[in-house]
Amino acid sequence: MQYDLTVDNLSKKFGPFTAVDQVSFDIPSGSFFSILGPSGCGKTTLMRMIAGFEQPTSGDISIKGKSVIALPPNKRNVKMVFQHLALFPMMNVEQNIAYGLECRGEEKTVITRKVGEILERIGLPGSGKKLVNQLSGGQKQRIAIARCMVLEPDVLLLDEPLGALDLKLREHMKIELKTLQHQFDTTFVYITHDQSEALVMSDNVAVMKDGVFEQVGSPQELYHNPGTSFVASFVGDNNRWSGKVQQMTADSMTVITDSGLNIFTKGAPGEQFCSGQSVDIFVRPEAISICLPQQHSSAPLGSQQAENELQVTVESVLFNGANSRILTRTASGERIEVDLPQRSEMSQLKAGSPIIIRWAQSQSLCFAKR
Amino acid sequence: MNQDSKRLAIILLFAPFFLWIVCLIVLPHLGIFVLSLKEKIGIGQYQYGVGNYAEFFLEPIYWNTLLRTAVMSIFVTIVTLIIGFPIAFYIAKLAKKRVKAGLFLLCLIPLWVSDLVRSFGWIVLLRETGIISSFLQNIGIIDAPVEFLYNDVAVVVGLVYTVMLFMIVPLVTTLEGMDDSLVEAGFNLGGSRLTVLRRIIIPYAMPGIVTGCIVVFMLTAGSYLTPILLGGKNSQWFTEQIYDKFITHFNWEAGAAFGVLLLVFTSLTVWLGLRLTGQTLSSTVAKG
After folding, report:
1. Radius of gyration of chain A (CA)
2. Which residues from B are below 8 Å from A73, CB to CB?
3. Fewer C-beta within 10 Å: chain B N or C terminus?
4. CB distance B182–A90 less than 8 Å?
5. pTM of the model
């Protein structure tokens, strides 16, 4: 398999602080790879090392199989879309795009043709003479990408470029970025702290924390089979309790939470558990179903053993269209967030309503505490 | 009522500024201009005419001096820019916060001493029996005292030293506003150090460069003490001619005409400079 970018045991230390700690990964050609992590996790340092702005303490970076570690930034065929785009304010759109081609010493006629082509391709033909500050946020974004793509880089790095946009535009640009990546068929490495950006656009996502990759996988894998409790809490929403293992069978266990709830759960794959061990339990709000009290008797329960069932009180309703939630509280005082489907019978729910919530044992996941 | 009091507040706020501009700048200049148009035809008898200006153009020594002053001032401006730009870049972009304040202070310190004292400082260094001359004798490079004063080099050195701060401050201000990622983007897209400097940093700093150059040029062309003290009789600075007219010849009318000419000529030079670099006053000085 051809890898556009290979990072091998890369580390970066700033004095006693380790920003990036022995990170290794490969990115196959033409894929969209995201590095997802909270601020300060070292993702920007990692990207700056790939671009050549930081010298790694140890390790190697290869692009298309060739080590670039000794090359200065202007000799690497890795282009970067900066967080605030860094379009040159004293040049117009055309000059911005032509800059890289001129640095490469291409002929004038070739430059004019290529600039025209790329403007066409990003859907902004004829805006070459515009000044940068005459463009809208989304247009600037596209120019910043075009400025890099016109140079046909092996890898395009994107450093949280959607951060400065408003929500509506951000949603739109997510789809557009993915489309552009498909069109250009170039490897994109996308850095973000926003999990929805990473999940929507990426073929593969690496979740990074404290300079280390916690898990690398497709968005579906990260969502359905998080490998660590950090990934479980960072990717998607989760209810989280801490508790102790009470009872174990081959494929399920019972955990008693600190406040005394009994929860049937499955253990994270590859982890060993023993009775009395401290664990974290995760349940996604969307995995929990709501039973109104009057339906309860008639609702099928399936295997009693496999189901978790709790009597709770609605604390508040967080209405947000299709993404509505309710906050509920158990008798023992635990708070549980539950997805609220927008069906007519649910509309009667309000603060104080008693309801029953249920989820399958297989929908809760438990990690050993570290 | 409210409108009126607002208007009153604005008037009061601007009154000192307005008085300053009118009384200390506009009126004296008008006075000088009117004076420059007077010709003496007898004792206590004057008539209006352009004779004082004609005198300037008919006597080559006068306009040669003015040209020389302009050329020297442009040279001083260029030297100041070349020395000041790297310093400003270092202060604005590379120095750490603490160091930055210290460096700025170092640039400022010379201004705490009067012009006169600073020029005498240079005299102490450069004169025949001065520190540099005796030092070079002591280490055996020269065997007789050398006079470093009273030549063009001394004048340029002294002027560059005096006006350096006025170049550095606007440059630092503009460069500080530049996002570091612009420079990184310049490298990332394949630019060499020279390309990034030429196509990104300098165009970005252009407003600061122009502001600094205008201020430095005006200060230099209008300076009197430094050229006189360091250049002596050889300095041939135009301000010296004006001084001579006023004080030595007691010909206020001619002196006034020369003053107006200096103002017009330097303004024209600045205008030409702006035109040649494709900048306007509003895009540079007024941008702040």
Report:
1. 25
2. 184, 187-188
3. N
4. no
5. 0.80
Which residues of chain B make contact with A72, given a CB cutoff of 8 A?
187
- Are residues A282 and A239 in contact, defined by beta-carbon separation less than 8 angstroms? yes
Residues of chain A with CATH 2.40.50.100: 239-368
Which residues of B are less than 8 Å from A78 in CB distance? Answer: 188
C-alpha closest to that of A192 among A233, A169, A232, A162: A162
Is ipTM strictly over 0.90? no
Name, in order, each residue with C-beta under 8 angstroms of B48's C-beta and a sequence gap of 6 or more: B37, B38, B39
The answer to whether B182 contacts chain A (CB < 8 Å) is: yes
Domains belonging to chain B, first-starting first, are 1-36 (no CATH), 50-284 (1.10.3720.10)
CATH 3.40.50.300 fits A3-232, yes or no: yes
Please state, in angstroms and rounded to a whole number, the distance separating the CA atoms of residues B160 and B81: 9
Per-residue pLDDT of chain B (288 residues; tens, 9 = 90+): 578 888 999 989 999 999 999 999 899 999 999 988 888 777 777 888 888 888 888 888 888 999 999 999 999 999 999 999 999 999 999 988 889 888 888 888 888 888 888 888 888 888 888 888 888 888 888 888 888 888 888 899 999 998 998 999 999 999 999 999 999 999 999 999 999 999 999 999 998 999 999 999 999 999 988 898 888 877 788 998 899 888 888 888 889 999 999 999 999 999 998 888 887 777 766 554
Nearest to A21 by CA among A49, A1, A63: A49
A80 touches chain B (CB under 8 A): yes
Q: Distance between alpha carbon A106 and the CA centroid of its chain, in Å? A: 38
Q: Is some CB atom of chain A closer than 8 A to the CB atom of B191?
A: yes
- The CATH code of the domain at A239-368 is 2.40.50.100
Q: How far is B81 from chain A (nearest CA, A)?
A: 21
Chain A residues in contact with B185 by the CB 8 A cut-off are 80, 82, 86, 88
Please, are residues A312 and A292 in contact by the beta-carbon 8 Å criterion?
Answer: no
- Please judge whether B185 and A72 are an interchain contact, meaning their C-beta atoms are less than 8 angstroms apart: no
